[in-house]
Fold this sequence. Notes:
The protein has helices at about 15-20, 50-65, 85-95, 125-145, 185-190, 205-210, 220-225, 250-255, 260-295, 305-339; strands spanning about 40-45, 70-75, 100-105, 150-155, 160-165, 180, 195-200, 215-220, 235, 245-250, 300. By secondary structure, the chain is of the alpha/beta class. The chain has a six-stranded mixed sheet, sandwiched between helices. Strands 3-10-4 form a three-stranded antiparallel sheet. The protein has a two-stranded parallel sheet with strand order 1-2.
Amino acid sequence: MQKRIIRPLFHSSASSLKRIGGVLTAATLALSVGSAQATDWDMPTPYGDSNFHTVNIQQFADDVRDATDGELNITIHSSGSLIKHQEIKNSVRRGLVPIGELIMSRLANEDPLFEVDSVPYLASDYDQAWKLWQASKDVLAERLKRQRLKLLFAVPWPPQGIYTQFAVNTGDELKGVKMRAYNKSSEQLADLLGALPTQVEVPDIPTAFGTGRVDAMITSPSTGANTRAWDYLTHFNHAQLWLPKNMVVVNAKAFDRLPEEAQKALENAAEVAEKRGWEASKAETNAKIQIMRDNGIEVSEPSPQLIKHLQKIGEAMTAEWLNRAGESGQELLDAYNKQ
Ligand code: PCA
């Protein structure tokens, strides 16, 4: 999980990595040592080392390395240190890196199907989120395949709630508040609450609060605790709006180039990582809520008025989403409702 060796073996040149990464320094470029056939893969993720997703993908990388006797070495680059979040998908597609992790709903602008997991109250607990994933993964994998990307696995964040510097009873308190968002639907929700949304990546959250760019945020207990929400916020409303997922994608060409055993090892490790990740996410929810309580954050369940307010917004957002997603969106919802 550190900046390690970048082996400019996969496609392109080290200098293009340097350009797209922006933060990659010449000092990190060196030839890797190891067996002649060994393949080294760099894997960017936007999230920090201690985050449960990053811990999970690190374990995934270790499993792959073990299963291939060191033939496939995946090095995780956390916190957007190698490639920034907004560039990870295209970097994998173009082969600048062979594999990467990103939040699925970041692709909402190219295809609304990718944000089906971020529609308020469509799937807001783990059972529903799992059903939605079962109903959506084939069509999402197919859409990614068109871009020569192979979807390996996806893991949800804990349910999304609202962090503020005051108690939220009806939702009206959020009018005019500068609110941190991370995808299209968190932005839309903030808008519909009358708040002023600003997109901020997780590693930039403390600075955004410190400099007054934002005064509230929508995120999980996980990200709240990892970014020490108690340093700048006082209240967390466990509104359980939706469970957005991170996904791990591989460049199809890079995958096809692997020896068959390595392909199998990767797929097996992915299956295990998905299961482990869903369990870790569930455990994370209460553990991180407790950490927030221990640090003085007032944690509350949404009031009936707030639920009503958010549900109304949720219905409007579902209709709007369906409008954009069209027939494929309706098919997806039908498949979900059948589960
Ligand atoms: N953490 C990430 C995505 C959702 C979450 O819980 C974030 O806040 O950007």
